[in-house]
Amino acid sequence: MVLRDRRRPLGGRGSGRPRGARRRGHGRGRRDGGARVGRPIAAGDLARTRSRRERPSPPRPGRRHRAGLSRGRRRGGAAVRVTAPAYCTLVDRVPALTFLIVDDNELQRRVVDSCLEPAGHQTMFATDADEARALLDTHRANVVLLSASLPVDEARAALAAALTPQRHGRGHLPQKPAVVVGAAPGERAVADQLVARGAAGVVARPYDRATLRAQLELYAVGSAPATILVIDDSRTTRRSSASILRRAGHTPLEAADGEQGLALLDAHPEVDLVLSDVVMPKLDGYGVCRAIRARPGGDQIPVLLLTALDDIGSQSRAIEVGADDVLTKPISAMELQMRVRSLLRLKSLQRKLARRNVELEEALELGEHLTHMLVHDFRNPLTRVLVSAEMIVEQCDAAGLRETADLGHDVLAAALRLRGLADDLLQVARIEDGVAAPKRTRFAAADVVHAIARDLARVAQVGDVRIDTDVAPELYVHADREWIYRVLQNLVDNALKYSPRGGRVQIRATRQASAVHVAVIDDGPGIPREYRERIFDKFAQVPAKSRRGTGLGLAFCRLAVEAHGGAIGVDARTDGADGSAFWFTLPAA
Question: Is domain 227-331 annotated with CATH 3.40.50.2300?
Answer without folding.
Answer: yes
